[in-house]
Amino acid sequence: MAAPGAPVTVTVTYSNEKHSIRVASPQEDGEPTLQDMAVLIEQVTGVPVPFQKLIYKGKSLKELEQPLSALGVKNGCKVMLIGKRNSPEEEAELKKLKDLEKSVEQIANKLEEVNKEFTSIQKGFLAKDLQAEALKQLDKRIKGTAEQFMKILEQIDAINLPENFSDCKLKKKGLVKRVQVFLAQCDTIEGNIGQEMDKLQSKNLALAE
After folding, report:
1. Which of 7, 61, 108, 129 could form a disulfide with 54 if both were Cys (CB 3.0 to 4.6 A apart)?
2. In this structure, are residues 34 and 64 in contact, taking their beta carbons and an 8 Å threshold?
3. Residue 3: band (very low, low, confident or very high) from pLDDT cuts 50, 70, 90
4. Is the pTM of this model over 0.85?
């Protein structure tokens, strides 16, 4: 019997195809889950995870977060897949959305950097006489970051999808939500930077008097 956490090799049958896949957990000591297996199945069959129906011993496997061991799926088991592949046209649109998703991640990293730098200024880790200039630069950067997110939203919006591209529609909706969350964070940080700049200005005026 395989040790807990050990990779599991299963045979997936889909239509007239047979695929042998080795499912391992991305976590070092973790157990492979149904989600891990479904992602691999999407890679070998082209059937997206949300549209997969996986049958094992006559039962439908549904709980993606469950370890395979808890579902009774062991080494050498056979799993049947029912589901529809995306058309090449839908795959092309999906690729556009995945590329935009990568851009969103990169811009989100910039947002994270601005936030970290701002927090360290708030905590007083920067000499008082350097704070005004640093805040001005951060203000500029956060405005630029928000602008980049807005451009991405426009690009997502420009992708027109036919009614039957359900996988793409799902991805597009999720991406729009993520960008909106990041934009709200930009607004909050920009507001906080503005408050900090005002505070600093008031202090300097008071000192000047």
Report:
1. 61
2. yes
3. low
4. no
